[in-house]
Amino acid sequence: MVRSLAAVAAAAAVKVAAQTSTTTSEFPFPTDGLPTYNGTGPTMLRFGCHQLVIDRIDPLVAPGQVPSHHQHQIVGGDAFAATMPSSDISALSSCTTCSYSEDFSNYWTANLYFRARNGTYKRVPQIPNYSDIFTNDPFISQTNGGMTVYYVSPGQNQVTAFPPGFRMFVGDATLRSPPDSPWDLSTQTCFRCFTGPDFEGDMLRPCLDPAVDTMHLPNKPCWGIRANVLFPTCWDGVNLDSPDHKSHVAYPVEGPHVFDGIGTAEECPSTHPVKIPQVMLEVIWDTTPFNDPDEWPEDGSQPFVLSTGDPTGYSQHADYIFGWKKDSLQVAMEAGCFMANCPGLAVQSVEQAAQCAVSELAGDVYDGWLTELPGNPAQPTVSTTTSSAAEPTPTGKGKGKGDDGKGKHGKRKAKRWSS
Ligand SMILES: *[C@@H]1O[C@H](CO)[C@@H](O)[C@H](O)[C@H]1NC(C)=O
Ligand SMILES: *[C@@H]1O[C@H](CO)[C@@H](O)[C@H](O)[C@H]1NC(C)=O
Ligand SMILES: *[C@@H]1O[C@H](CO)[C@@H](O)[C@H](O)[C@H]1NC(C)=O
């Protein structure tokens, strides 16, 4: 049975919100309390984007560098380049890979590679496949790699859509252990380990099911792995970017907003008073061709590695460059829309979106068996302290549901390779 992930998410979400509505039995999950996306209620856009390109460039963190430190997979508008101006990129784009055709934003994350026992690597293919039984979205299940993008607003006049030139980053590509944070960031980045075919085990909202979600890469074979990365939901209201690409945005005072499909922040801190839409990216990898136990490491660790060179998964991160045309995102945030149908927003066909592409610049060979990861990315310095006795007592920071806070590589202490 193929479930609609976000629908499940929304259903579970609103159970929490304890609203009421009628129950429909045709859906393979509880629908008690599903919100009314009726034009005045919350908006949850959920839409597919084909892959635009796989490349070792990063206009946000390493502008102008070709190639940059590690490889990404990118979706969105074709203005994507090694250097991108802080102006309205929708005006520089002629097409987008996303189903909402006014969204010329760029979104990117790391790729996933499998490392065989003989030490060679193979890129793990991304799959799009899950149907959307609520809105019969024909696009989302047919994307060519790429990802699913979500935008959430709690209702009318509650969030401020990003201005042209806005960009942000979440995560830390140098991490090899749980983040040192006062917040429980396991609700903001996680890997879901599907327990059977057709996304089995996908019952609860992203990053909130300890049975299948971990902040580190799963340490057992899965029927596919799904990554979710959520961006902060408060903004200083002034700066389009900041030197670390993070400090102009912040989490609400009550902590990072979990994905519930209906809300973003109760209260933003006074330093970052502006509530912005909650953006979440979702990537699914088909790991099933790589589940042969004879190819898994003999020491009991797991064989997947992010394109950062990270075998833990803690370096998961995501980049966003806003590029919706004119006020289209604000209009959508006010519209009480659900999934890929939003009156007032233009859409394009899956075929049309697939024609949008840009050329790879780094010149990497990245398919087939590789003797090293693209760019053979330098790794952060790892301290020599490996005795658990010498480790500080875990404080619970960065720890939470679905994550034991350590994982296979929890004893490693990461340091930055720069700064
Ligand atoms: C729309 O939904 C919201 C809750 O999501 C509810 O408060 C409001 O009354 C609904 N409006 C109409 C016209 O049904
Ligand atoms: C390494 O292992 C993989 C997986 O078994 C295999 O397909 C590949 O041919 C091997 N490469 C070499 C150079 O032995
Ligand atoms: C996607 O789903 C369809 C229908 O369920 C199936 O035939 C197809 O093999 C799936 N594709 C992938 C890549 O899983």
What do you see in this structure?
This protein is mostly beta strands. It has one domain. Helices cover 6% and strands 19% of the residues. The protein contains three helices and 18 strands. It has helices at 5-17, 328-334, 350-354; strands spanning 43-49, 51-55, 72-76, 106-110, 112-115, 121-123, 147-153, 167-171, 189-193, 213-214, 225-230, 234-235, 249-250, 274-275, 278-285, 304-306, 317-321, 338-339. Strands 10-9-11-15-7-1-18 form a seven-stranded mixed beta sheet, covered by helices on one side. It has a five-stranded antiparallel beta sheet with strand order 2-3-4-17-8, with no helix packed on it. A hairpin with a 5-residue loop joins β5 and β6 (121-123). It is globular, with a radius of gyration of 20 Å. It starts with a helix and ends in a 65-residue tail after the last helix. It binds 2-acetamido-2-deoxy-beta-D-glucopyranose (NAG) (3 copies). One 2-acetamido-2-deoxy-beta-D-glucopyranose is lined by residues 116, 118, 120, 295, 369. Keywords: Signal. Residues 1-18 form the signal peptide.
